[in-house]
Amino acid sequence: MDIPNMVGAGLIVIGAGIGLGMIGKAAMEGIARQPEASNKIQTAMIIIAALLEGIGFAALILA
C-alpha cells in the first residue's frame, strides 16, 4: 500500500466518523424536539448509519 492510498483511506475513515457524528447529533436533536417520533427517527438513523458504514468499508477496500 503506497502513501496516496493510505492518505485516501485515512480521509475516508475521518469522513465516515464525521458523518456518523452528524447523524447522531441530528437524531438526538430530533428526538428532543419530538419525543413521540423517537421510534421513526431512531430507525432512520440506524439505517442511514449502516449504509454510511458500508460505503466507508467499501471505499477502504477499494483504496
Describe the structure.
The chain is mainly alpha-helical. It has one domain (about 15-60): F1FO ATP Synthase (Up-down Bundle). It has helices spanning about 5-35, 40-60. Helix 1 (about 5-35) runs antiparallel to helix 2 (about 40-60). The radius of gyration is 15 Å and the shape is elongated. The N and C termini lie close together (about 10 Å).
Keyword list:
F1FO ATP Synthase; mainly alpha; single chain
SSE inventory with pairings:
Layout: H1 3-33, H2 38-62
Helix pairs in contact: 1-2
Question: What would you say about this model in short?
Answer:
This protein is mainly α and 63 residues long.
Portion in beta strands: under 5%
Distance between the ends: 9 Å
Give the averaged pLDDT, no decimals: 91
* Shape estimate: elongated
Count of domains:
1
Main sheet attributes: strand count, strand direction, barrel closure: none
Outline the low-pLDDT stretches.
none
Query: What multimeric state do the chains show?
Result: single chain
Strands, total number:
0
Classify the secondary structure makeup into a structural class: mainly alpha
User: Helix tally?
Assistant: 2
CATH architecture, by name, is: Up-down Bundle
- What's the CATH H-level superfamily name? F1F0 ATP synthase subunit C
The helix content is over 70%
Rg of Cα set? 15 Å
